[in-house]
Specification:
This protein is an all-alpha fold and about 375 residues long. The protein contains 15 helices and no strands.
Length: about 375
């Protein structure tokens, strides 16, 4: 019960803080601080400094801590308002709240099905051991999405404000920036993962070898998501948000069918291909819908330059020799590839926002490009 209570209110407080343009403290407490505390408690239990009941108590404290920190932060920011404001929720707003809440429940439930259906079908069709391999490989591929999640959190409140003020041109500009940034960051992450794939697989037992191409296709699927920017955020904050529910139903069908036909042929790689198809299809549908309804075309000549830079970077890294020590190989291969990519970005001015950050960091070392 304590875990359920604090988990529920963490979501409430985190969403509220995002609406107040404080989007950093939530992920910091949940994704970093909570894990550090859990690791500390687990270490104490592992070395038998505490017994199991104390471990469980510590675990509950760790999961409750982020919520308490957010509550204190909200109070310190003078945003703690719990006194009802009479007359604010009129009949029209109440109807909209109920409508949005029902849609959110449906979308959340459907989203859970989409996220987990591949693992369920792999387990049913191939067995538990293959599900374990798939899960580990999926984790490596999903690293691609970490930067995108940060962008989504920050952009949500901004896009909501733009819609409120009917500033469609500002939304288009933000859409373009996030697409190009997503293409740049997504491609360098994708290249970084794939050029080090053999080093990554060497860290795992031999039975995980079949997960190599799972990583490839999962990463490719999330690359397509990053390359389509904040289409999900824009649609969710627009008056057409309920269309995403219809799209989810279609995507569930695509997910089930693609897994059903591809798993028997390609095994866990087939499920990864199905996931890539699902992610890409979902984002293409959203992209097409925004283009149709709002005439938002987020791509420009810089988008083409970024794709060309990515291809050129991948070709150039093939000339880097292989080193026997996998740690040395990862370090040299990653640094050289990242350096080539950054240099091409600076020379072509394909991503001005990223270039400004690169130049800012280079100035610290008295390097001007």
């Amino acid at each position: 019960m304590p875990m359920s209570f604090f988990s529920l209110f963490f979501g409430v407080f985190d969403t509220y803080l995002r609406a107040c343009y404080s989007s950093v403290i939530g992920p910091f407490t949940k994704d970093f601080l909570q894990r550090i505390v859990i690791l500390a408690v687990l270490t104490l239990y592992f070395f038998q400094f505490i017994n199991f009941p104390l471990f469980m108590l510590g675990y509950i404290v760790a999961t409750s801590l982020p919520t308490l920190i957010l509550m204190i932060y909200i109070i310190k920011q003078k945003e703690w308002h719990i006194k009802p404001f009479k007359g604010f929720v009129n009949k029209e707003l109440a109807k909209e709240i109920v409508k949005l809440s029902l849609f959110s429940l449906f979308a959340g439930f459907s989203g859970t099905i989409i996220v987990n259906i591949d693992s369920i079908m792999v387990n049913q069709m191939l067995g538990l051991s293959e599900t374990g391999v798939y899960g580990i490989a999926f984790f490596f591929g999903s690293i691609m999405l970490i930067p995108a999640r940060s962008i989504y959190r920050i952009a949500s409140s901004i896009v909501a404000d733009y819609f409120k003020n009917d500033s469609l041109n500002e939304i288009k500009k933000l859409y373009n920036k996030t697409c190009n940034t997503g293409i740049a960051v997504g491609n360098i992450l994708f290249i970084g993962i794939w050029i080090n794939i053999d080093n990554i697989m060497s860290l795992l037992p031999p039975e995980y070898a079949s997960g190599k191409y799972v990583i490839l296709f999962i990463a490719a699927g999330y690359l397509s998501e990053m390359s389509t920017g904040i289409n999900q955020v824009i649609l969710a904050n627009s008056k057409y948000y309920y269309y995403d529910g219809y799209f989810v139903l279609l995507i569930i069908g695509i997910t089930v069918l693609s897994n059903y036909f591809l798993i028997p042929i390609y095994g866990i790689t087939g499920s990864a291909i199905a996931t890539a198809i699902t992610i890409t299809s979902f984002n293409l549908i959203r992209w097409g819908f925004l283009l149709y309804k709002f005439k938002m075309q987020p791509y420009d000549f810089n988008s083409l330059k970024l794709i060309f830079i990515s291809i050129l970077t991948f070709i150039n890294q093939s000339f880097i020799p292989t080193f026997s020590n996998f740690m040395v190989d990862i370090a040299i291969r990653s640094l050289l590839t990242g350096g080539i990519f950054a240099l091409l970005l600076l020379k072509t001015e394909a991503a001005p926002d990223i270039n400004s950050k690169i130049r800012k960091n280079l100035k610290r070392f008295s390097i001007k490009l």
